[in-house]
Amino acid sequence: MDATKRRVPPWLIVVFGAFVLLVLLEPCREMIGAALISGPGSADYSLPLPGGLALDRSSGKRHVIGWIDGAADDHVAKRDLYGVADSAVLIDADVTALGWNERYIVCEQSLSDLARDPTTGWWIIDTEKHERVGPLVHDEFLRQVARAGIMPLVIRAPDDWRNQTR
Are 69 and 78 in contact (CB under 8 A)? Predict the structure, then answer.
């Protein structure tokens, strides 16, 4: 048989294609997101909070407060209540400390390159009035919570809350 008329077996094409994709995508793994290649991690979690909100951890450095999973229309309605642009996230990365009671959620947001609009400071979320105040410097945060009578609250790191609720 003439060498120019040989056919490449289909399985070899598939194996070669998969190899090329893995080699090409590996350097872009961080840009694309680890979930595309490796899926959700075993340390990811969602912690329910008052007012239909939840603390979500989607990586070791990404803790956000957003809506508990539901229909897209429900997310838009909640977004409109709080007057925020994002339909999934109320407080973007990285939430590094939080506490709550039946009505209020307080949290500290630290700078993160994973956030759309990197911000730092303290936030107060009133789930009854659908208001959020922040970011606040620590002294102003303490004045606001004292004025609203929110304290005492236990404030912990997100992973500490997760470990306690297991």
Answer: no
Cα angle at 20 between 19 and 22, to 5 degrees? 65
pLDDT in tens, 5-53: 778 777 777 777 666 666 665 555 444 443 433 345 567 788 888 888 8
Query: What separation in angstroms does the CA of 55 have from each of 1, 42, 62, 84?
Result: 65, 16, 10, 17
Nearest C-alpha neighbor of 127 from the set 56, 45, 57, 67: 67
The secondary structure element, H or E, covering residue 25 is: helix 10-25
DSSP 26-94: GGGHHHH-HHHHH-S-TT-EEEEEGGGEEEEEEETTEEEEEEPS--HHHHHHHHHHHT-S-SSEEE-S-
Return the SS3 of 136: strand
| Predicted local distance difference test score (pLDDT) of residue 165 | 59
Distance CA 74, CA 53 (A): 12
* HSE toward the beta carbon, residue 70, CA cutoff 13 A: 15
pTM of the model: 0.66
